[in-house]
């Protein structure tokens, strides 16, 4: 069974840092692109960052560019999101999602349960 | 990277058909056949309904269908059922290599 399990969320002060992890199982991790998608309280889905299967190609939304870094360790079947200079507006549930192919072009057909990040003083 | 435009809400009666639109630009929806649709019930994880404009993953009911014309994609739900009441989001691949979501549409089954 294909599974994604996020961890690393929590409460952090504005300007602080946090690293999210997503452990994958049940599929050949390196063969699929992965993304982070977030959902603020009472808000819609927002694509945050994505990485191709090899880990070389990474992409970020303008809202997090220069602050967030996505990476993956295919030997550990794990996806990461390093979040720096956090802002109150980064408060959200962060989902890890698997794309249907090795690049980001196709939809995300498997989602984790999400991990909650709260940025507050 | 502006969000794709969806109506905030739509409604329909059981058995009817409804259509949700998703409007972007030639740099996203209009430029690629890589539009996806997701369903999200309150408090639940999103699930993929449609990918690549009009393809359904295995297990998704054939009551859900997708199409595209120019810069606007559409999701049609036929034979509306009470369980279809949820939030629906479109997304598209973009010329920047990113993904972008629509603002979401709340479907109410009357």
What are the SSEs and their pairings?
The complex is a heterodimer of chains A (121) and B (110).
Chain A: E1 3-7, E2 10-12, E3 18-25, E4 34-39, E5 45-51, E6 58-60, E7 68-73, E8 78-83, E9 92-99, E10 108-111, E11 115-119
Parallel strand pairs in A: 2-11
Antiparallel strand pairs in A: 1-3, 3-8, 4-5, 4-9, 5-6, 7-8, 9-10, 9-11
Chain B: E1 9-12, E2 18-23, E3 35-40, E4 47-50, E5 64-69, E6 72-77, E7 86-93, E8 99-101, E9 105-109
Parallel strand pairs in B: 1-9
Antiparallel strand pairs in B: 2-6, 3-4, 3-7, 5-6, 7-8, 7-9
**What is the molecular shape of chain B?**
globular
Helical coverage of chain B, percent range: under 10%
Strand content of chain B: 35-45%
Total number of strands of chain B: 9
Class per helix and strand makeup of chain B: mainly beta
H/E element order of chain A: EEEEEEEEEEE
SSE order of chain B, one letter for each helix or strand: EEEEEEEEE
Please count the beta strands of chain A (DSSP E, at least 2 residues each).
11
| Overall geometry of chain A | globular
- What percentage of the residues of chain A does DSSP assign to strands (E)? over 45%
Characterization of this structure:
The complex is a heterodimer of chains A (about 120) and B (about 110). Chain A is mainly beta and about 120 residues long. Helix content of chain A is about 0%, strand content about 50%. Chain A is built from no helices and eleven strands. In chain A, strands 2, 4, 5, 6, 9, 10 and 11 form a seven-stranded mixed beta sheet that branches. A four-stranded antiparallel beta sheet of chain A has the order 1-3-8-7, with no helix packed on it. In chain A, a hairpin with a 4-residue loop joins strand 7 (about 70-75) and strand 8 (about 80-85). With about 110 residues, chain B is mostly beta strands. Chain B has strands at about 10, 20-25, 35-40, 45-50, 65-70, 70-75, 85-95, 100, 105-110. In chain B, the strands form two sheets. In chain B, strands 1, 3, 4, 7, 8 and 9 form a six-stranded mixed beta sheet that branches. A three-stranded antiparallel beta sheet of chain B has the order 2-6-5, with no helix packed on it. In chain B, strand 5 (about 65-70) and strand 6 form a beta hairpin. Classes of the chains: A mainly beta (about 120), B mainly beta (about 110). The interface of A and B includes residues 35 and 111 of A.
């Amino acid at each position: 069974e294909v599974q994604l399990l996020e961890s690393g969320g929590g409460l952090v002060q504005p300007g602080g840092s946090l690293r999210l992890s997503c452990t994958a199982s049940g599929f050949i991790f390196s063969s699929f692109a992965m993304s982070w998608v977030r959902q603020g309280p009472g808000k819609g889905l927002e694509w945050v960052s994505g990485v191709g299967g090899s880990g070389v190609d990474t992409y970020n939304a303008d809202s997090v560019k220069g602050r967030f870094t996505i990476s993956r360790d295919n030997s550990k079947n794990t996806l990461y999101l390093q979040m720096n200079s956090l802002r109150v507006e980064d408060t959200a549930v962060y989902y890890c999602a698997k794309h249907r192919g090795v690049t980001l072009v196709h939809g995300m057909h498997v989602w984790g349960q999400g991990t909650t990040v709260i940025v507050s003083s | 990277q502006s969000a794709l435009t969806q109506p905030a809400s739509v409604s329909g009666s059981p058995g009817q058909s409804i259509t949700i639109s998703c409007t972007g630009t030639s740099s996203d929806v209009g430029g690629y056949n890589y539009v996806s649709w997701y369903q999200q019930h309150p408090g639940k994880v999103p699930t993929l309904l449609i990918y690549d404009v009009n393809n359904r993953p295995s297990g998704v009911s054939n009551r859900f269908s997708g199409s595209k014309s120019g810069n606007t994609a559409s999701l049609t739900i036929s034979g509306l059922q009470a369980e279809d009441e949820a939030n629906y989001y479109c997304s598209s691949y973009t010329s920047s290599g990113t993904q972008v979501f629509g603002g979401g549409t709340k479907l109410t089954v009357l």
